[in-house]
C-alpha cells in the first residue's frame, strides 16, 4: 500500500495504491491525516485499490466526515471495482455523493 | 487451507454424509407415512444443516442447490405442497445429487462436470415446477387465508414483509480477524438485502479514531425465506462482542421500539432511518412511541418474555422458528454429549496396543507361575482380569450396529424393484446386532449383490406370482443375529427358488461335476458360488453375467466367514452368511500336541472329553466317537498336521460346534483358556487349509489358530459320503 501525492490546479490528488485493509489501515490513516486538515480541494483516487475491507471503508468514511466538518471539498474518484462492490454492498454511494462509473459486471 | 479449517471441513463432510443418509431414510419413511410431521422435520433439518454449514465453508454450489430443495421441503412442511410419490422420487434424486456435490465440491474441491451439471439443471427445473405449482395454487381464490392474521397483526405488528436486522459491531471485531462486510455478503447468499444503511456514528474524532477498531453499524432490510435460526447463525462468531437485533417480517412494533432504545444512536434519528428504509411506517412509529410513554400496565419493568406471553397474537412462523431452533439446539447438544468423534486409525492403534498388552500380560503371568510366589501370582491374575476387560471394552468401541448398512438397502430395493417392474418389500430385523466396523464396511458390497440377485432372479413378476397362487408383492428379508461367537446375516426371499435341474445341467456342461454324480441339494446350490457360474437365461443390467456370486464368496471368505445357500423350489431362497464378530482378538482355548500348541476359538468349544485307552483303539478305526448316543466324527490333529512323536499317555477330545455340525478334535493336552491376539499369516500360507492365523504365547512361542469351520466341514463331508468322487468335494463351498 502506498499513497502518491500530486498537485493539480490547486487540488491535491492522493493516489491510494494497493490494499485498504486492516493490515494497512493504521499506516494509511497516519499518511492520510495530514491532508485532511488542509484547506483546498482534495481528491482521493481509488483506481489502484485492489482490495478494501471494513477497516479501509471506515477510513474513507472518516475522511468524508472530517471534510464535511471542515467544510472543505473531498472527492473520491475513479473507484476501482473492489471499492465499487463495497459501496454497493453498504449502500454508501449517496453518502459520499461522488459520481460513480457503473462498472460492467460479468453477471449482467 | 489452514489445518484447523481443513479439519473442520472434514468434519463437515462426514456430517453431511451422515445427514444425507438420515435424509434418505426419512424420505423412504415418508413414502409410507406421508403425514408424519416429525419425519418431514427431520428431512428439512438435514437439508438445512447441510446448506448452512456449506455456506460457512463457501461451498457455493452446495448452498445454491440445497437452497431450492430446502424451499420445497419448507413448503411441504407448511402444508402448501402435498407429499406424492413423484415428489419423493425427485427429492431422493436431489439427495443423490447433493451427495455428488459434496464429493466433488467439498472433498475434491473441484467443479461438476458437464453431465452432472446438466443433471442438476434438470433437477432444478423439476423442483422449480413444484415451486410454480404452489404459487399458482396460492393465487387461486380458495386459499386457507393468512389474510386475517395480517389484519390482526396490524394492531401491534409492522406491515413490512422484510426481516429487519440491526448490527453494531464491537471494536474488537476487526482485530479478531472478522470483516463485517463478509457478514453482509453472507446475508446476500441466504436472502437478498433490499435496503441497507451504514452507520458510523460511534466513530470518534479523527485524532482518537483507531484505524484497527471497528465503528461500523448496519440497519438492514433483508428479504429471505430463511428461518430466524439460519439468520442468527450467521452471526455466531461475533455474537459476544456485537449488538445484534433480528426482527422477523411483520415483527412487533414493541420489539422495534425496544431495539431502538437499546441502540447507541439517537432514538429519533434511528426512528426516522427505519421509517425511511421502509421498516416502519410513520404511524407505526408514532403508535409505538405513544405506547411507550403510556404503558398499559402499572409495572414499568415488565420482562420481555411476559410481554410476549401476554400478547397472544404472535406470528406462528416466528414461534415455530424459535421452537425449531430450540429443539434443534437441544438435539444437537444431546448428540454432542453422547458421541465423541474419533479417527478410526486411532482406535486401530489402541486395539493394536491392547493386543500387545495381552501378550505381555500372558508373559508376566507365566513368569509369576514359575516363581511360585503367591502374592505375585495374585497380582498378575488381577492384572490379567483387567486386561481382559480393557480388551473387551476396546473391541466394543469398534462395534457398530449393522442396521445402518441394512437401511441403505431400502433405497436399493425401492429403485431396483421399480426398474424391474416388480413389487418388492424389504423387511429388516436384527438391525441392532453389532459387529466390528471393519467387517461392516466390507460386508456391504456382498450383501448388495445378494439382494440384487434375489430381486432379479428370485422374486418373480407380479403376474407370475399371482399365477403361482402367491401374493403379487414379493418379500425380501434381511436378518442378523449373534450365534456362538459369530454374526449370522440371512437374506431370504419368497421367490421361485433355485432351479435344480438347470444348475445340474450347467454344472455338467462346465465339467464341475461328473455326469454320473448325484450331488445333494446343498452341494448343488452352493455351486452357484463358483466363478463364472450363471444360470440366468437373460442377462439383465443387474445380474446374470456370471460374475458376482464367486466374488461374494471370496469377499466373505476373506473375512474368515462362510456362506451357505438353501432353497425350496417355488417357495424361495435363503442365503446365510456367517462372520466372525471381530478380526483382532478372540478368546481362545489352548491345546497341545507334542511340543506344539494350537488355539481353538473358545466360543466354538462345547465340551472336553477324555479319550480312554479303550475308546482310543476303537475310534482309531472307526473315526468317530459315541458321545452319549450321538455320532461324533473325530479329527486326529496329530495325524492331520503330521506331527512327529507318539501320542501321550492320555488323549482328550475337544468337542467343537460350527453352524449345525459337531466334531471332536483329538489332542494330547488341554492347556486352558487363552486370550488370543490374531496375527494374520503371511501370503505364503494363504492356501493352507485348517489354519486361520497365528498368535504369540506368553513364553514367546508361536501357536497356530485352528480354522474350525474348515476342519469340521471337511470331516463331516468325509463322513457323510466317503465314497463320493473327489471332484465334487474340491469345489464345494466351505
TrEMBL record, chain A:
PROSITE patterns: STAS. It comes from the Bacteria. Coiled coil: none annotated. InterPro entries: MlaB-like_STAS, MlaB_ABC_Transporter, STAS_dom, STAS_dom_sf. Residues 1-92 form the STAS domain. Gene3D superfamilies: STAS domain. Pfam families: STAS_2. PANTHER family: BLR2341 PROTEIN (PTHR35849). This is Anti-sigma factor antagonist. It comes from Pseudomonas fluvialis.
UniProtKB/TrEMBL annotation, chain B:
It catalyses: ATP + protein L-histidine = ADP + protein N-phospho-L-histidine. It comes from the Bacteria. PROSITE patterns: CHEW (PS50851), HIS_KIN (PS50109), HPT (PS50894). Involved in the transmission of sensory signals from the chemoreceptors to the flagellar motors. CheA is autophosphorylated; it can transfer its phosphate group to either CheB or CheY. Pfam families: CheW (PF01584), H-kinase_dim (PF02895), HATPase_c (PF02518), Hpt (PF01627). Keywords: ATP-binding, Chemotaxis, Kinase, Nucleotide-binding, Phosphoprotein, Transferase, Two-component regulatory system. The modification Phosphohistidine is found at residue 48. Residues 383-583 form the Histidine kinase domain. Residues 585-717 form the CheW-like domain. This is Chemotaxis protein CheA. Coiled coil: none annotated. InterPro entries: Bact_Chemotaxis_CheA (IPR051315), CheA-like_dim (IPR004105), CheA-like_homodim_sf (IPR037006), CheW-like_dom_sf (IPR036061), CheW-lke_dom (IPR002545), HATPase_C_sf (IPR036890), HATPase_dom (IPR003594), His_kinase_dom (IPR005467). Its EC number is 2.7.13.3. Residues 1-105 form the HPt domain. CDD domains: CheA_reg, HATPase_CheA-like, HPT.
Amino acid at each position: 500500500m502506498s499513497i502518491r501525492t500530486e498537485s493539480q490546479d490547486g487540488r491535491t490528488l492522493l493516489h491510494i495504491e494497493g490494499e485498504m485493509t486492516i493490515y494497512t489501515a493504521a499506516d494509511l490513516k497516519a499518511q492520510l491525516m495530514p491532508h485532511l486538515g488542509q484547506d483546498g480541494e482534495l481528491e482521493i483516487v481509488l483506481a489502484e485499490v485492489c482490495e478494501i475491507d471494513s477497516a479501509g471503508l471506515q477510513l474513507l468514511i472518516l475522511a468524508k466526515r472530517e471534510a464535511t466538518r471542515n467544510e472543505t471539498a473531498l472527492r473520491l474518484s475513479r473507484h476501482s471495482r473492489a471499492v465499487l462492490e463495497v459501496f454497493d454492498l453498504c449502500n454508501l454511494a449517496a453518502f459520499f455523493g461522488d459520481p460513480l462509473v457503473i462498472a460492467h459486471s460479468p453477471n449482467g | 487451507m489452514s489445518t484447523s479449517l481443513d479439519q473442520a471441513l472434514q468434519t463437515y463432510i462426514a456430517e453431511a454424509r451422515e445427514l444425507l443418509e438420515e435424509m434418505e431414510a426419512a424420505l423412504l419413511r415418508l413414502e409410507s407415512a406421508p403425514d408424519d410431521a416429525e419425519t418431514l422435520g427431520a428431512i428439512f433439518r438435514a437439508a438445512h444443516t447441510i446448506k448452512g454449514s456449506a455456506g460457512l465453508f463457501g461451498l457455493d454450489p452446495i448452498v445454491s442447490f440445497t437452497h431450492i430443495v430446502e424451499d420445497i421441503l419448507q413448503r411441504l412442511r407448511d402444508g402448501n405442497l402435498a407429499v406424492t410419490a413423484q415428489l419423493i422420487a425427485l427429492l431422493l434424486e436431489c439427495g443423490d445429487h447433493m451427495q455428488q456435490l459434496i464429493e466433488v465440491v467439498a472433498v475434491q474441491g473441484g467443479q461438476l462436470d458437464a453431465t452432472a451439471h446438466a443433471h442438476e439443471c434438470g433437477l432444478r427445473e423439476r423442483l422449480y415446477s413444484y415451486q410454480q405449482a404452489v404459487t399458482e395454487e396460492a393465487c387461486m381464490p380458495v386459499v386457507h387465508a393468512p389474510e386475517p392474521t395480517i389484519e390482526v397483526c396490524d394492531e401491534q405488528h409492522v406491515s413490512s414483509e422484510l426481516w429487519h436486522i440491526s448490527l453494531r459491531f464491537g471494536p474488537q471485531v476487526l482485530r479478531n480477524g472478522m470483516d463485517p462486510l463478509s457478514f453482509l455478503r453472507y446475508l446476500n447468499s441466504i436472502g437478498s438485502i433490499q435496503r441497507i444503511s451504514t452507520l458510523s456514528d460511534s466513530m470518534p474524532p479523527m485524532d482518537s479514531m483507531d484505524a484497527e477498531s471497528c465503528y461500523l453499524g448496519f440497519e438492514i432490510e433483508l428479504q429471505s425465506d430463511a428461518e430466524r435460526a439460519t439468520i442468527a447463525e450467521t452471526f455466531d462468531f461475533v455474537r459476544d462482542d456485537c449488538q445484534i437485533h433480528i426482527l422477523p417480517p411483520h415483527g412487533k412494533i414493541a420489539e422495534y421500539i425496544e431495539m431502538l432504545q437499546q441502540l447507541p444512536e439517537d432514538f429519533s434519528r434511528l426512528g426516522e432511518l427505519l421509517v425511511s428504509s421502509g421498516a416502519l411506517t410513520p404511524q407505526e412509529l408514532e403508535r409505538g412511541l405513544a405506547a411507550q410513554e403510556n404503558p398499559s400496565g402499572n409495572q414499568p419493568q415488565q420482562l420481555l418474555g411476559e410481554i410476549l406471553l401476554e400478547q397472544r397474537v404472535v406470528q406462528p412462523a416466528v414461534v415455530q422458528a424459535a421452537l425449531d431452533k430450540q429443539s434443534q439446539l437441544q438435539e444437537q447438544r444431546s448428540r454432542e454429549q453422547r458421541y465423541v468423534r474419533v479417527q478410526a486409525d486411532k482406535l486401530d492403534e489402541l486395539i493394536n496396543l491392547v493386543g500387545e498388552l495381552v501378550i505381555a500380560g500372558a508373559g508376566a503371568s507365566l513368569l509369576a507361575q514359575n516363581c511360585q510366589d503367591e502374592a505375585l501370582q495374585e497380582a498378575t491374575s488381577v492384572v490379567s482380569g483387567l486386561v481382559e476387560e480393557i480388551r473387551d471394552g476396546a473391541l466394543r468401541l469398534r462395534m457398530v450396529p449393522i442396521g445402518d448398512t441394512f437401511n441403505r438397502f431400502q433405497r436399493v430395493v425401492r429403485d431396483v424393484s421399480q426398474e424391474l417392474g416388480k413389487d418388492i418389500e424389504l423387511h429388516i430385523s436384527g438391525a441392532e446386532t453389532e459387529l466390528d466396523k471393519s467387517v461392516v464396511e466390507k460386508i456391504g458390497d456382498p450383501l448388495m449383490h445378494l439382494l440384487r440377485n434375489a430381486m432379479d432372479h428370485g422374486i418373480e413378476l407380479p403376474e407370475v406370482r399371482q399365477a403361482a397362487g402367491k401374493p403379487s408383492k414379493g418379500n425380501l428379508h434381511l436378518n442378523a443375529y449373534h450365534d456362538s461367537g459369530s454374526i449370522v446375516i440371512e437374506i431370504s426371499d419368497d421367490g421361485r427358488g433355485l432351479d435344480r435341474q438347470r444348475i445340474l445341467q450347467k454344472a455338467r456342461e462346465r465339467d464341475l461335476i461328473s455326469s454320473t454324480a448325484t450331488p445333494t441339494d446343498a452341494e448343488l446350490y452352493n455351486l452357484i458360488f463358483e466363478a463364472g457360474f450363471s444360470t440366468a437365461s437373460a442377462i439383465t443390467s443387474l445380474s446374470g453375467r456370471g460374475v458376482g456370486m464367486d466374488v461374494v464368496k471370496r469377499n466373505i471368505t476373506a473375512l474368515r466367514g462362510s456362506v451357505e445357500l438353501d432353497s425350496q423350489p417355488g417357495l424361495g431362497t435363503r442365503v446365510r452368511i456367517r462372520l466372525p464378530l471381530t478380526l483382532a482378538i478372540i478368546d481362545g482355548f489352548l491345546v497341545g500336541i507334542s511340543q506344539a500348541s494350537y488355539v481353538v476359538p473358545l466360543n466354538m468349544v462345547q465340551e472336553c472329553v477324555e479319550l480312554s485307552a479303550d475308546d482310543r483303539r476303537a475310534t482309531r478305526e472307526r473315526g468317530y466317537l459315541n458321545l452319549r448316543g450321538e455320532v461324533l466324527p473325530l479329527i486326529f490333529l496329530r495325524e492331520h498336521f503330521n506331527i512327529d512323536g507318539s501320542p501321550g499317555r492320555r488323549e482328550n477330545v475337544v468337542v467343537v460346534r460350527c453352524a449345525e455340525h459337531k466334531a471332536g478334535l483329538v489332542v494330547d493336552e488341554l492347556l486352558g483358556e487363552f486370550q488370543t491376539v490374531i496375527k494374520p499369516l503371511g501370503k505364503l500360507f494363504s492356501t493352507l487349509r485348517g489354519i486361520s492365523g497365528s498368535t504369540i504365547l506368553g513364553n514367546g512361542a508361536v501357536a497356530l489358530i485352528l480354522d474350525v469351520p474348515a476342519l469340521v466341514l471337511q470331516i463331516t463331508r468325509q463322513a457323510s459320503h466317503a465314497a463320493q468322487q473327489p471332484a465334487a468335494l474340491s469345489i464345494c463351498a466351505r
